[in-house]
Design brief:
Elements (H helix, E strand, L loop, with lengths): L2 H5 L9 E4 L2 E4 L5 E3 L1 H16 L11 E2 L17 E5 L2 E6 L3 E4 L3 H16 L5 H24 L1
Antiparallel strand pairs: 1-2, 2-3, 3-7, 4-5, 5-6, 6-7
Helix pairs in contact: 2-3, 2-4, 3-4
The protein binds zinc ion (2 copies).
The site of one zinc ion has 8 residues, from loops.
Length: about 150
């Protein structure tokens, strides 16, 4: 294995990785490595859409886990990534390069982030919460697609 190959390979499926801005996206399984600051900004964006007022990015709530799932290697530095739980999903984290999300995990994490915020949004009426919940998935999908591919 050459250095170039090892840096350009998906940690999940060995597929090729494309640089998309600050992210690395797998061309086969749609896994993606996202810098933590970008994830924080996305969560803030989703929450802003949900509550209708600006929400500032805050550090991610990454919980430790005892999972026995196989650890992945960071596609940028090949360090073994740590398993962390983010909004109920087990993800892989390189402290230097960010978080690896499999396939639809990024969208799922953002969905959870939006719902978690809604439950604590006291300023919203119940009717507004219902309307927002129904439209959130579409907003999030659009944002994620824009974010990953452009
Ligand atoms: Zn892959
Ligand atoms: Zn790394």
């Amino acid at each position: 294995m050459t250095m170039r190959d090892s840096f350009a390979t998906c940690p999940r499926c060995d597929g090729g990785l494309d640089e998309k801005g600050t992210r690395l996206v797998c061309t086969q399984c749609e896994g993606v490595l996202v810098p933590e600051l970008d994830v924080m900004k996305l969560v803030a964006e989703v929450r802003t859409l949900n509550v209708g007022e600006a929400v500032e990015p805050v550090p991610l709530d990454l919980e430790t886990t005892e999972t026995t799932e196989q650890a992945l290697r960071c596609p940028r530095c090949l360090t073994t990534m740590a398993k962390r739980v983010l909004y109920g999903l087990t993800v892989d984290r390189c402290e230097a390069h960010g978080i690896w999300f499999d396939g639809k995990e990024l969208q799922a994490a953002l969905d959870h982030a939006g719902i978690a915020r809604l439950k604590t949004a006291r300023t919203l009426s119940t009717e507004r919460k219902v309307v927002i919940t129904l439209t959130t998935a579409a907003f999030i999908a659009l944002n994620v697609i824009r974010f990953i591919y452009f």
